[in-house]
């Protein structure tokens, strides 16, 4: 509601019940990832139009949204917006009866936060977010049903105004060696309330677990305010969110929110002023994943081929794609693909329409697009060949991505992890080194803020630049052999080590061994192993304590006071200044002056004990010296009888527990305190009275002081008599 | 028209997304859709039949392409095409009988191809009438033997030329009547599909006897009605239900059987062989029945059929007439299977580490195959029970020939 009210007076909020009954199910689809992970491919084509098993990613997302009952989807286009809009207008989504696809175009947005702010500002009477909406990005592949989830979200919202978002999570174990999820994203730590499913903590762990020792820091208040907390490290964030309109206005209010997870989710979790809450929903049998990097491109493609995404699989026409025929061993083949008899197309492969595969080719675990022509004796393993690619005889391609229109001349070799962008030509017999990214466009030189975009310039210039480049290319000796064309992009420093993580190629054995070795070393240092997931229950008694556990706070306070006191002793600070410092501590910890007195006395005695001494008498001397010196400080806090009693009690406690050496000296030191006027006669007598009824064990010190107390009593009686 | 177009699109969409399950539901939706296509189709004055056939074929092709695995769609489309042809034929026969033989050489100055065909049909009809076959449904076996009427009819058309005014008026009435008759026929088909359970269930008493043990697999509404009909006739018997992993539709069937008061035992699919010696009859519902008498049924059915064969237990298949498919399964294009999601077998979360392609060779070592259907060859089937009675597997082709015209087999 907040969003609608803030949105200006123009819109009238309709009657609540009416609105609930007939709310169009809407979705916002961000057709831009706002990252550079798919460069250089995304310099020429937006990520959502990249083919995943020969179907553009956005078709998966739209087909899923449509069948999940979404009626209206706002496609937010930023980079290459014209390409996306053109595609959508020619696709069957444009005229789809059940799903209205509306495009929103903006060139200024450089993050998801900007996009949502733009959408919020651009809302008009006809196109607006009316209620709860689904927020996904255009590279999501899923088959989960949404209707129940949206209903759950709405009902929760009705009960709790502050429940603004439901986040979809799915169980997926991270690799024990690399601490990376199978999608190539960092390991995720989340804390969830097991009953309400409220999200309490969200942390994407960067893989530098050497530095962190594999530990997670949780706010202590988390444990205090929740009776039980479930911690997971085997969950995968599906990047599918059901949001209430408040989310948009939150983005509007917090103009520094850029990233959905790093800024928004963390911001909401930390902010306890607004008190907004995020909930989680774990999906069981359905599939959901986001193509975030080349590694997840590989993983999701394989999941599609293995049919986890059913019914969004290549042999079913789900979104205007031409269905392929599925054969044994999960081989998908177009009916007009020409395969040579001697070609060996192995398990889990896809061969597109109009593709010719020559003699003696070996193809395994690969996706080959439409209209490709592949010569003879070519080896293609674990690779993704897009459309209209020409591969000449005798090439070897392993774990590579080859974009549209690429030409690989005879005998060339692509080593694992290579990405060839559009229309690149690899020269005869050239070996493209592992993990290299090749494009016809030169690598942008500056690492400026534009890096956040998928493309550097406005979308118009691409074609012009391309033609210009090809001219330039002829004059310049190519980096890809004499008859090749394309620039090999340099990997920026620092990112070089990370390259293997996000590549399509599997992590090489030696790298894995290296990491495993490093981890073993870590384990030697630190044996504690965190279980995959477990329920942490804070003790019942610590919950029951109403004020934030005063015992705990007091011990902190005591330590602080001790520190202050020692500093005062060492640096010879004056008593007045000492009082000032301790007063400020007292305020910040919200303590009584009796507590201060106890703490100061404790520090003094501790100091006395800590000072070197050989015998009890020397210790006594130390103690009395200190008391003499700092009685002003102590005296400031022991003006009342109660406070003096507190000091005695504290002293007694110390003798019993922390500083047993002082035990025999109890009576003597008490006498000193009396002499120095720190403790008054009344206090001692009242202490004695209180203790009189206690257990025998507690009376040890009382008995020790018996003569002293007797003397005090007599003295006071005498005084009384004299007064009379 | 636009609303028909949109309902067609919507249905195509549902078929594609696999949102309609069960051949009966699909058949019902298909036939209702085709009825509205026919009723909305504006027909020209001449050659109504071919216009209707073209319209139905066009829609039918879309529907079949949307989900080729669901054979009931193709079956129903072919049935409707057959109805159109038959009605056309019977009208022509009637017209011939009323008019002179001379009318057969009626005319058409515009002489377009469709008209020729129409005339061709009529001529064929004349031939048929001459053969004194007054039944509305001419024996299809003969039609098959004759080959396609079109080719046979072409020579007759040469004798065109003469015409008469009265004829055109007559024709329009014929065509109006044709559409009406076709819709009537389609309505019959709808009733037939809706009533096939009862028709089949009526025969239950003849097959299930006192104190027998019946084994079934998966969940079929036809089987449920069949068993319940026997129960209602005071037969007391026991039912073993094989659970039908991985979707466990057998559990649902068991629930419903118990709700109707039948003695039910649920067994695992793998226990079928062990239990078969105690079973008197296996009764299953089919997904489709092929022209050779082979059966496409829920996965695991072939295993049950083999077990039944081994122990000489009768293996009975219940199939409504919409499940009879005029195609032969030796064509791999026809014998399709639906491979569903592996998540029905495995929990993705548990196995996610086996599917981590970042480690090892990068090739998926774990494969999951989850087929929906199984093929049972005809020699394992003892009896088919359709709404027209019990039949031998070797008789199925004949039954099928009654329902479909040879022209429509390939769409």
How would you sum up this structure, described in words?
- The complex is a heterodimer of chains A (724) and B (411).
- Chain A is α/β, with parallel strands linked by helices.
- Among the domains of chain A are: 329-489, Hexapeptide repeat proteins (UDP N-Acetylglucosamine Acyltransferase, domain 1, 3 Solenoid), CATH 2.160.10.10; 550-723, Alpha Horseshoe (Serine Threonine Protein Phosphatase 5, Tetratricopeptide repeat), CATH 1.25.40.
- Chain A is 37% helix and 18% strand.
- Chain A has 23 helices and 36 strands.
- A 9-stranded mixed sheet of chain A has the order 15-16-19-22-25-28-31-34-35, with no helix packed on it. Chain A has a 7-stranded mixed sheet with strand order 5-4-1-6-12-8-13, with helices on both faces.
- In chain A, a hairpin with a 5-residue loop joins strand 15 and strand 16.
- In chain A, helix 17 packs parallel to helix 19.
- Chain A is elongated and about 120 Å long.
- With 411 residues, chain B is of the alpha/beta class.
- Chain B folds into 2 domains: 2-196, no CATH class; 202-337 and 372-408, Rossmann fold, CATH 3.40.50.10470.
- In chain B, 50% of the residues lie in helices and 10% in strands.
- In chain B, the strands form 2 sheets. A 7-stranded mixed sheet of chain B has the order 3-2-1-4-7-9-10. A 3-stranded antiparallel sheet of chain B has the order 5-6-8, with helices on one face.
- In chain B, helix 11 (249-259) links the parallel strand 2 (238-242) and strand 3 (263-267).
- The two termini of chain B are 23 Å apart.
- Chain A binds chain B through residues 63, 67, 97-98, 143, 170-173, 175-178, 180, 182, 184, 234, 284-287, 295, 298-299, 302-303, 306-311, 313, 315-318, 326, 329-330, 347-348, 364-365, 381-382, 399, 505-507, 512, and chain B through 6, 9-10, 13, 16-19, 65-66, 339-344, 347-350, 352-353, 355-364, 367-368, 370.
- Chain B: Belongs to the eIF-2B alpha/beta/delta subunits family.
- Chain B: It is found in: Cytoplasm, Cytosol.
- Chain B: GO terms for molecular function: guanyl-nucleotide exchange factor activity; translation initiation factor activity.
- Chain B: Its main location: cytoplasm.
- Chain B: Pfam families: IF-2B.
- Chain A: Residues 522-553 are annotated as: Disordered.
